[in-house]
Amino acid sequence: MSERTILVVLDGLNHAVAQHAMGYLHALCEADRATYHTLECELPAMSRPLYECLLTGDRPVDSGVVNNDVVRRSTGTSLFDLAVAQGRRTAAAAYHWVSELYVEAPFDRVRHRLRQDRDAAIQAGLFYWRDHYPDDHLFSDAEALRQLHEPDFMLVHSMNIDDAGHRYGADSAGYRNAARQADIALADYLPLWMAAGYQILVTADHGMNDDRSHSGKLVEERRVPLWTLGSAFVEQSVTGIEQTEICGTLATLMGLEHTKPVAHALLAAGAAT
Ligand SMILES: [Zn+2]
Fold first, then answer.
1. Fold type of domain 5-266
2. What is the pTM assigned to this prediction?
């Protein structure tokens, strides 16, 4: 098993909206080309702590990245680190906090905007810093990196849904329409990535509440979507998945040596061997 993988993180998308607003992703589900699951994010339900959780499998209370103001390189072992150490290629089109976690902190808008370094954990990176950096630009950035660098693992991380949630709240046309727009934009790229043979996860770091924020235990803050796309995944919806298992599940699919927890229930028979 030596699959190539893509992790799409739609920042701030809660399950309540994900389960109805994402017409293209649910079309793939209806056509048996994707499966929708949900999971509860770790706490605190905040971005930087949960980027670290998704990419290392470590809970915020263990990683020490416990709020958005912890600005330093990760001290954990990320999927980027694992992949590069074992000779695989990595890329990320993501918010600049990802660059701070896995490349260098603090972020320098000139030196770190566009990265190409075979010795770095993220070998090819394109990073942005405005929360309203358009999602359709971000997905285009990711596809450009993919075509140029042919990564074995790529992170694609959009921010407009979270931005709309902070402006208008979770129960708003603005938030729901931002989700719809991300889905529409993704529809231009997911077919390319599936055709290229990638195993793909689409999820969120955390959700959003009606108070225009997120950090705690409300179901709308914690419950997030997880779509699986690719032949390595089971075709039925699975419950009980932990956010700490995303990193290890992708590492296992890639055939990487690792000791991280794995969501075995997500993997089709034969995919984990
Ligand atoms: Zn947010």
1. Alkaline Phosphatase, subunit A (3.40.720)
2. 0.98
